[in-house]
Design goal:
The complex is a heterodimer of chains A (315) and B (280).
Chain A lengths: L6 H13 L5 E5 L3 H4 L2 H6 L4 E3 L4 H13 L3 E7 H7 L1 H9 L6 E5 L17 H6 L5 E3 L4 H13 L4 E4 L22 E4 L4 E5 L3 H14 L4 E5 L2 E3 L3 H11 L2 E8 L4 H12 L4 E6 L9 H7 L4 H16 L1
Parallel strand pairs in A: 1-2, 1-3, 3-4, 4-6, 5-6, 8-9, 8-11, 11-12
Antiparallel strand pairs in A: 5-10, 7-9
Helix pairs in contact in A: 1-8, 4-6, 9-13, 10-11
Chain B lengths: L2 H23 L4 H18 L14 E4 L5 H10 L39 H15 L6 E6 L6 H12 L5 E7 L2 E2 L2 E2 H5 L4 H7 L3 E6 L3 H13 L5 E6 L22 H17 L5
Parallel strand pairs in B: 1-2, 2-3, 3-7, 6-7
Antiparallel strand pairs in B: 4-5
The chains are: A alpha/beta (315), B alpha/beta (280).
Chain lengths: 315, 280
């Protein structure tokens, strides 16, 4: 397994790579270029990088304006300030007119670490996916992050992408890996339960699968990188194959992937769905690794939820 | 006929369209629409490089109605300019109609940006102006802001941004009618004085009477000639201008006239139009 890379790092590099192909890409940041990694693009294409200062609401609307005159704006700040603070700007000035703006939010979730609760956004996916027409992607590693950036460029419309601060393993390095917006990726087969995960939880789902195997439980693992539009076809297939689902995300269990999967399945194939994620609480300060353990955002947490799901399935 | 007389006639047609739209909708915002009617008339009939047959020309000037609720004026101007039929004004705000309660760029020919949530459109205009600069294009961007709207913090983010990036292709017009829903702007939340604040933020500032076409013309001419920084035109206006019982009444911010009031409004505007002489 290769060295660990944060998805924000992959994002910054991808911007540079595609920036030289698509000269209508422009990048906006709100005084966080070093942290969001748009600084990589800024260094290579200073004439297409615009710092907006600590004024996110203006930045999102400036991006909207740029898109109306033919630019592909990539807008970055922390997830808290993009999806949170500027929700209404995104909703009304980007979502409603369906403008070609790519909102790339970094530092999402508990794994932000020491900055604590004010900066650990566990609500962004919930907020973004309520906006009609918004594509919402949470990539699971550096490879997928780069592919998501490329796919978003080729897609004409608003896209929200979530990138993390914490370096994570490369898990999508197989030669037949293919990223398509709205198409989930089957990571491993199983017959007893399906773990549907995204972001950094996909790797944990694969680890959980190994742990479950030693208990004689066969788990299927799906990487649901696109939360919206959700891959109903894959969900239906899995529901029929395994009969119960555990969702896993670094996000509040309310409103994110777990909700999206539950909503879809309740209408097409109602089966037990148990949600794993941040249990409707705020985060706190601490090293990311310690917080991940405390909030059970790891394979152990997933295994616990799998047992719950299996019990529900038997009833 | 002098050009000013011609503009006054067009503006009166625009006002008739506003009254028609709001009366038939049984809702809407006549006050701020009437106060901005002359500015919009000048913009679309004299200042801006736009035409209905080139609605999507990438080199056209752009306009953003940041005070989106004043769209009866905007729609009336676009109809007069030929972007769509004037009949559409009668179905403004109706279910299934093209003309939404606030501007919708996806459904309405000629609308450069959807707006309505105050404070956002002006930032969008800044983005358009930045885009023109990046491409070294010489089209210009105009944004109309409400005076009450300037209470939004985002407006001051945009004012800072436009000056920082020297957006001299951007012209902001403040429709300074002095009234907002809850009363006088100075009583609700005094945000004045605009001129000294904008100057302190690095803007070129021009004041004019927003109902005097000669002053409006001079203001836009000066704005176009100003290089290196954005220009704000502070247009002194009268809310409800042109309809006697609506003038300077905050209560006419967001309500429709009843049939009797509608008839009076149409009579007053028609009499004024006739007093200007000529055929149109």
């Amino acid at each position: 397994m290769a060295d660990k890379i944060a998805t924000r790092e992959a994002y910054g590099k991808a911007l540079c790579e595609f920036g030289s192909v698509y000269n209508n890409i422009v990048v906006l940041d709100a005084d966080l270029a070093e942290a969001t990694k748009t600084c990589i693009f800024k260094k290579q294409f200073p004439e297409r990088f615009f710092d907006c200062g600590i004024a996110e609401n203006n930045m999102l609307c400036v991006a909207a304006g740029l898109s109306t005159v033919g630019k592909i704006p990539f807008v970055s700040t922390f997830a808290m300030f993009a999806a949170g603070r500027s929700f209404e700007q995104i909703r009304n000035s980007i979502g409603y007119p369906h403008l070609n703006v790519k909102i790339c939010a970094t530092h999402a979730g508990i794994s932000v670490g020491e900055d604590g609760a004010t900066h650990q956004c566990n609500e962004d996916i919930a907020l973004m996916r309520t906006i009609p027409g918004m594509v919402v992607i949470n990539p699971s590693d550096a490879v997928e992050a780069k592919c998501a950036v490329e796919a978003s460029i080729k897609y004409n419309g608003p896209v929200y992408m979530r990138f993390g601060r914490l370096p994570i393993s490369i898990i999508n390095d197989s030669p037949d890996y293919k990223f398509e917006i709205g198409k989930a990726i089957k990571m491993a087969d199983g017959i007893d339960v399906t773990i549907v995960a995204n972001g950094m939880m996909v790797e944990q789902a694969l680890i959980a699968r190994e742990m479950l195997m030693s208990e004689g439980i066969s788990a299927s693992v799906v990487n649901m990188h696109t939360v919206k539009p959700i891959d109903k076809e894959m969900l239906l297939f899995e529901a029929q194959q395994t009969g119960c689902i555990v969702t896993s995300e670094e996000h509040n269990i309310i409103g994110g992937l777990g909700s999206a999967v539950s909503e879809a399945l309740s209408e097409i194939c109602p089966i037990p769905v148990v949600r794993h994620g941040v249990e409707d609480v705020f985060g706190k300060s601490g090293p990311a690794k310690e917080l991940i353990e405390e909030y059970k955002l790891n394979a152990f947490g997933i295994v616990e939820k799998v047992h719950q799901a299996l019990a529900l399935k038997k009833e | 006929m002098s050009d000013i007389l011609e503009l006054q006639k067009i503006a009166t047609e625009i006002r008739l369209g506003i009254v028609e739209a709001v009366f038939n909708a049984k809702s809407g915002h006549p006050g701020g629409a009437l106060s901005s009617a002359d500015i919009l008339t000048y913009l679309y009939f004299r200042e801006m490089n736009v035409s209905a047959d080139k609605a999507n020309d990438e080199n056209r000037d752009r306009f953003v109605l940041s005070k989106g609720h004043s769209c009866p004026a905007y729609y009336s101007v676009l109809a007069e300019k030929g972007y769509f039929s004037k009949d559409e004004l009668k179905s403004f705000r109706h279910t299934g109609a093209m003309l939404q309660g606030h501007p919708d760029m996806k459904g309405i020919n000629g609308v450069d940006m959807s707006s309505g949530s105050l404070g956002q459109g002006f930032s969008v205009a800044c983005g358009m102006a930045l885009g023109a600069k990046i491409d070294k294009k010489d089209y210009r961007i105009y944004a109309l802001l409400g005076d009450g709207e300037s209470q939004e913090g985002q407006v001051w983010e945009a004012i800072t941004f436009a000056a920082h990036y020297n957006l001299d292709n951007l012209c902001l017009i403040i429709d300074n009618n002095g009234l907002q829903i809850d009363g006088k702007v100075k009583d609700v939340m005094n945000i004045m004085p605009y001129a000294s604040k904008l100057k302190a933020f690095g803007w070129n500032v021009i004041s004019c009477d927003g109902h005097n076409f000669e002053e409006i013309k001079n203001a836009f001419d000066k704005a176009r000639q100003t290089k290196g920084k954005p220009t704000a035109i502070i247009a002194q206006t009268v809310k409800g201008k042109g309809v006697s019982f609506m003038e300077n009444q905050a209560s006419w911010h967001g309500k429709a006239p009843n049939e009797e009031q509608y008839n009076i409004a149409v009579r007053e505007l028609t009499e004024y139009k006739n007093s200007l002489g000529g055929n149109k």
